[in-house]
Amino acid sequence: MDGGDAIIYDGDFKHRKHLAFLQRFLKIVPFHMVALDTNQLTVAYFVVVGIDILGKLDDAFTAEEKDRIINWVYDLQILPVPVPSGNTGNNDIRGGFRGSHCLGYPLPSTDHPPGGGPVTQQYDWSHIASTYSAIMILLTLGDDLSRVNRSAISRGIAALQLDNGCIQPMGDGAESGDMRFVFCACAVSYSLGEWSLNKDALTDFILSSLTYEGAFSQSGTCESHAGSTFCAVASLALLDRLSCLRERQRDRLQRWLLARQLSGFQGRPNKLVDTCYSFWVGASLGLLESLQLSDPVANRCFILSTQDPTVGGFGKEFDAVPDPLHTFYGLSGLSLIGEMGLQTIFPALCISHRAHSHLERLKRSNTS
Predict the structure, then answer these.
(1) What pTM, to 2 d.p., does this model score?
(2) How wide is the angle at C-alpha 126 spanned by C-alphas 331 and 88, nearest 5°?
(3) Sign of the four-CA dihedral 266, 271, 273, 279
């Protein structure tokens, strides 16, 4: 199917099958997705928040199951260890969450209760994307974040900021920074109410990534991309600095985003439409208060054409194998355009409004 063709889809939204598809990923991951093992927290985020968007969180999980997931998340937290007086150590900047136990970190036991632990070896670092996923899962499941080591995460995030304001994902410098990690750092900082970042440098980096095309790139001189654009726009929103975009810049950005719609949305010019961009582009337009200028009917038809009517879930395009990422962003894209039966989404954090309301209550209780 040509990504630019109009799509006629007469089927219905497979609500129950999508729920079953997501639930399976909490128990077993298909063999062809074994590479996701190092990113278990991210997969769990797609599953838990996706089920919340389906409005079935309490139906899918008992209170005990929610507690079990919460304890599993906390067990992936890296906690600082005391450093002898006069000595220095770099564990202080590793605060956050690991993506999984793939490095052999011990599971909870009598000697090692849930709640996280110190670094076990030199390659044991937190990752800002995993930390984002962890915090969003905890909020969605109604946790009070009391076991989150806010000061350690705050120090860890500050250590990730580079001289140009960008954010690298890990403190060991193994991966370069870009807009994805800027968003994760802003989302975590906003959620915890701990802004250890240099906001001015961060804002300057984001604005410097606005290209001649009118949208945002991953960094520097890269080409504009819908995913990078969402990360940039959402970060500015969380920083409360969307007003830093001048009127002409905002108009050109809206035009670029709207031009990405063929039936669903593409991520860049001359590319095929893809389910996930219904969220990346749709959320960006929503944050800019211009989603109403897009065509929700064509977008919905495209998204529904990518669902698997047999096993549930969404793929990236028609007849593609479904996966947790495209299922989550397909549901999120449908939520943005008001699909019946779905919870509304808070686009700047990519969680439900229900979960965001829980976060706001926590913030109020912490300041009262």
Answers:
(1) 0.92
(2) 160
(3) negative
